[in-house]
Design a protein that fits this description.
With about 160 residues, this protein is an all-alpha fold. Helices cover about 75% and strands about 0% of the residues. It starts with 6 loop residues before the first helix and ends with a helix.
């Protein structure tokens, strides 16, 4: 059963995504150093951090990602699709949104194969970590529910 969510739940989700993206890109900026400014508008300030326009773009992408997630994982709109199908659709839509942002905001040269390879690698790493966190959390929740059910059975 799907919990009713309000605007604050979605805002919290968007801000969590935004925060994680900023931390990840800040580390990348520090590693790229001053040379990063040459290759990406995201790192236009070099090792000094990220510009306000880059942060605004990250926030917009976070909001869009949250919107995509809310739509595709909604039981009301896509309840007839399996969770796997909805999850795959969400990943495809999020990658498409990122590709649009890369091209529109010139995050890195769109014709540079190495840049796309690095993007795919970083996306894959982030996806794997988030999947592991999600599955671990789900496993803990399932174990807690099983224990609660067992206690309920024993009490009766």
């Amino acid at each position: 059963m799907e919990n009713k969510k309000n605007i604050f739940d979605y805002a919290a989700q968007a801000l969590m995504i935004f925060g994680l993206m900023v931390v990840f890109l800040s580390v990348c900026s520090a590693l790229a150093g001053e040379g990063g400014a040459v290759h990406s508008t995201l790192f236009s300030l070099g090792a000094k951090g990220m510009s306000m326009s880059s942060l605004a773009q990250m926030l917009a992408l976070s909001i869009l990602t949250t919107l995509i997630r809310a739509i595709l994982l909604s039981d009301r709109l896509f309840g007839n699709l399996s969770v796997l199908a909805r999850s795959i659709a969400m990943i495809v839509c999020c990658v498409a949104a990122i590709v649009v942002f890369v091209i529109v905001f010139d995050w890195f040269p769109a014709d540079n194969a190495l840049a796309w390879l690095c993007f795919a690698l970083s996306f894959g790493i982030c996806f794997t970590v988030s999947l592991w966190v999600t599955l671990s959390r789900q496993k803990r929740e399932n174990e807690a529910m099983a224990q609660a059910l067992e206690r309920l059975k024993n009490d009766q």
